[in-house]
Amino acid sequence: MDKILRIDMGAQGGPKMTTEPVGEYLGLGGRATTSLIVNKEVHPLAHPLGAENKLVISPGMLSGSTGAMTGRLSVGCKSPLTGTIKESNAGGQAAQVLARLGYAAIILEGKPEGDELYKIFINKDGVKISVDNSLKLLDNYPLVEKLRGEYGDKPAYVTIGSAGERQLLAASIACTDPELRPTRHCGRGGVGAVMGSKKVKAIILDDSGLKHRTPVNPEKYRDANRKFVEGLRKHPVTGEGLPAYGTNVLTNVLNEAGGYPTYNFKTGVFPNGAKISGEAQAELEVKRGGSATHGCHRGCVIQCSGIFNDAEGNYVTKQPEYETVWSHGGNCGIDDLDVIARLDYMDDNIGVDTIEMGATIGVAMDAGLAEFGDGAAAIRLVEEVAKGTPLGRILGCGAEITGKVFGVEKVPVVKGQAIPAYDPRPIQGIGVTYATSTQGADHTAGYAIATNILKVGGDVDPLKTEGQVALSRDLQIATAAIDSTGMCLFIAFAIMDQPETFQALLDMLNAFYGTNLTGDDVVALGKKVLSAERDFNKRAGFTAQHDRLPRFFYTDPIAPHNQTFSVSDEEMDQVFNW
Amino acid sequence: MSQACSTLQLFLHREQVRAFSAIVQQGFSFRVEAGSTLEDLLCRQLRLDPDFVRGRITTIFLDYKPVDDIKTAVLRDGSTLALSGAMPGLVGATMRRGGFYSAMRGGISHGEESAVPSGEGEIKVKLFNLMMEELGPIFLLKGIVLPLSEMKDFLARQDPAFWKGCSESTLDGRPVLPEALIKGEGIPQAGERVRLCVVFEELKS
Ligand code: SF4
Question: Which of B59, B88, B100 is nearest residue A247 as measured by Cβ atoms?
């Protein structure tokens, strides 16, 4: 990973590529690379779909090696959905392959004139950019199928569906999984629309003839990786709960806590939650000959995913994640796993963020476009997005736009991005992260529950109200750091509870790069990334007033606990006070 | 709340425990000593190993409130208790009992109880994820109480493999044939609820 591929899609005479040394980004990866480049190179007032915006694609620090869990791909840009800086990441095979090809980043910049649609093929011999208008308006599944006919089964495919081409603000970028299905998405923030604005339909990454990346100290790396894997396997969450039930294991628990936003955030309990729980989902998957345990990329030892088949045993989609089951399920009053799986497939195929899409359907239901609980109507609404009808374009631009167009008062978004599957009224701490994240409402922004080991913020008194703010700060720092390593965030449970597993992760990084990183260095990296993101947002016009939840969270209590969000603005403004 | 009802007893292969996943997730009634602490229920009444309780039952809700201390959480007649293993995600960690992030849901945590009347009582129990298989057989052995309609639906939807794994079935101590149970004929029509006891045999190779 010693070079950066820069492609000016708007160059005179057609796209022009240059390869440059990695320079100041050496030893970085994932979110660190994308956010530092975007902050440095993108004008903060640029139109997100204009020539001045850039799409930066970066593998993790350890991607392409033999290390476990190292396959997250980060995509960064100025978000058309939020107007803030954006980093969105996904699993799949792409990060591993891109890293083995030697690229620390691909930067797509400029904007072509005219209607030509491009594909970019990268292998060990170089880069080829070509026009392929036969791909126009193909959705992800048929698109990958067609590309496989030309490039075969070896590459990893990074693609956009029709939503990306139409530059809809909820558009995602798909990455293929080991079975070459476009199931892993950089979903949040409309990154697919930015790729669409550059007129790039597909990036085909082929590492044929290339080996794994070699660590500076291979023996130490192997040893640390072994300990790391042992730690993941022995922890009840990463070794048992996630492999058995996937992330949707959270449905029952959030429902029981009264923190499961239901009917567009009107109540905290979905009466039929058990019908769409991870437990019910896993049982159905196994019964139908699918699988409840599956890795989204090679080298994943947790395997939180699965395969969802229909009643006849035919593939429908990958195992929908908790946030998807929530957004299309309980949030819309839908208790049918087959309907939810169908919607998950449609989202992946069209190329839209499942959280944004489900939240949008919830808002549309509030607007009277469909009844809560009507699965067929939800499918019809998503079909509108697939067809690109005027209604579909509105829905495909997310919950905020839909709420405005249809006059819905209560729209669950922060900085234009839909709030995910955890209600911030009973779980106030997560509300602080939703409100203050540099990314718009994002449950993963403060996800890396390893702060007690990292000791990022010194000693926090968790019993004090200001503890919420301090915890959110620490979580956001730790998450920014883990996002930069390119490791799957689900490692966080094992590294939180088992200091030796966290040490094994540090040892992996040090053995790979020949460094002596400590926990403090990881914290410093997290702060550096967040500072760059905050700097960009500030220059883009964001102030403390944008770090707030929608008003109804402060005024409307939610059952069963009848709580409102009560962290004060003054406290909230202390999150980034370090 | 407790009232007399018929008892159906099944002797099943261990692997049939999965058939009960919907029932245990949605919740069943269970007789307890009201006024006792959660620790008393788990460690004395159910005889669970304290290490198991500490290490495996890491997420507990009593009346929809996350519990941090099982020594002070007290069961009332009519309470709802949910038991779960460790959960993923920040919110999963937040719900963990006595966890580092419990402050993030401080407003809904289970607090100190005022005096709770003691005596015979009944609670609703829900088992999630890993607890379904680890605690399901223990509750089922002691006997759970279900509405008659739910019991009939459960018996009717079991496939032949389930009945193949059933070596014996009795109703109030008298043998009853699976065919009758499937048709709902073995269960008395009177009474609104049934007590179900299941003895799981170890898998025979
Ligand atoms: S744990 Fe899940 S999300 Fe993470 S790498 Fe494995 S399959 Fe992908």
Answer: B88
